[in-house]
Automatic annotation (TrEMBL):
Gene Ontology MF annotations: zinc ion binding
GO cellular component assignments: mitochondrion
Record lineage: Eukaryota, Metazoa, Chordata, Craniata, Vertebrata
Domain of life: Eukaryota
Protein name: TRAFD1/XAF1 zinc finger domain-containing protein
Amino acid sequence: MTEGTRFCKNCKRDVSTANFSLHEAHCLRFLTLCSECDEPVARKDMKDHQTEAHKQVRCNLCCRSMQQYQLEHHKTKECHKRAMKCKICELEMPFNKLQEHLNTCASRTERCWECNKYVMYKDQKKHKDICQNSGLSYYKDVNFQTRNAYTNAKFIDPTVIISGCKQPV
Ligand SMILES: [Zn+2]
Ligand SMILES: [Zn+2]
Ligand SMILES: [Zn+2]
Ligand SMILES: [Zn+2]
Ligand SMILES: [Zn+2]
């Protein structure tokens, strides 16, 4: 038997092809779409659904009134007082405060350790990639020290002195 699904128009769900005719018969008989929210609901539960899902409730954060079934979506995606995290400093605050906070948060500056320039907090990550001194300064220092060490070594290396000054041992 081939695996596959067919879309049931009645309940708006994908149903496995194998069970489709069975499902459809059953579905048409027992399920119906709620005219208000388009959710498949068992016919016998429609009254309950209407009273439960479509009763008026208030969001306890912003006090907006809406129907019960909308509340969850509202609280997670819409409510302007839902808690959101600032993506810069990760502080949690109500959504309606976030934009203002983001502006201040984003314009805060911090000194870059590498180049001593003040970099906006929001640009820190970007700056690390483009900072002229990042990594380089360390590398340069190391190079410099190695060269010094090398020069010193040359200076005290007897064989070099011999060859350099052509003096007998
Ligand atoms: Zn169905
Ligand atoms: Zn409904
Ligand atoms: Zn709300
Ligand atoms: Zn912040
Ligand atoms: Zn820098």
